[in-house]
Amino acid sequence: MPISRMDLADAGSPEALVTRILQAEPELPVPVPIQELCTRLGILRIEDLETGEFEGGLVTDAKRSEGTILAKRGGEPRRRFTIAHELGHFLMAHHVPDQPGRFLCKSSDLLRVTAKAGDQRQRREVEANRFATLLLMPPHLLRGAMAGFREPDLEHVLMLARDFGVGKEAAARAYVHYHPERIAIVVAGNGRVQRCYRSLAFPDIICAVGGPVPTGSLYHSTQHRPSRASDIAACSPDLWIDVKRDLRAPDLYEQVYLQQNGFAMILLRLEAAPEETAEERRLDEGWRHRFHSGRR
Ligand SMILES: [Zn+2]
Known about the structure:
This protein is of the alpha+beta class.
């Protein structure tokens, strides 16, 4: 692994940094050897973080001459993401910690994908997450892995998580982002919507974060087996999205993967309403005309 800090020159954004790393390491294997990359890039040690309040940390100086990453003990995929996130703080010189020389990040920081306008702290957490995601799931390798997938399926998310050594939720976010179809993944915990990830063309999800998973969802079926993705089934689209009354409802499909810890992923796939045939349109318009003019 020949990469060094020299290769990163003045790259400052997550995208520019990961581009330089991938240029210097064109044969980077998956799972990406994150600890080895850290060593090459100026991290002296990776130590266990003992406090329960924080998920990760970084001890370094303003010049970033060297650093120590702290990561909570736990599942390997989660720890790998934390280490990559802290490496992101280390390499982005414009990231200024709350306390001099010490970044401390909570689990909510490691899930953050958007920042409030003007909130520098949130912004730097979003950037560190984008860096970690791009580095652990390099776009060209992710596209290559996804090229063989056809219909959207949560089994693919599980395969990506395993092959790239990332958590299921990180894999789900990337899957939704790169999949060509209109899909969304809702993360539910103890019956409530926790987080939603949508592809660009997927409409807003009407269920509030923190609110219950809708009663009619496949999620409430008693047939699920833990750690196995369910069959894919059609559902009523107005459970999840706003269906305009005067338009034909699109077809919406659900698939559920129940974890053992009370968490679940719900995959939503939207299919555009099929084009009306000319005959259907003529009948429909004729009916509306009669309705509005009071003739039956
Ligand atoms: Zn952080």
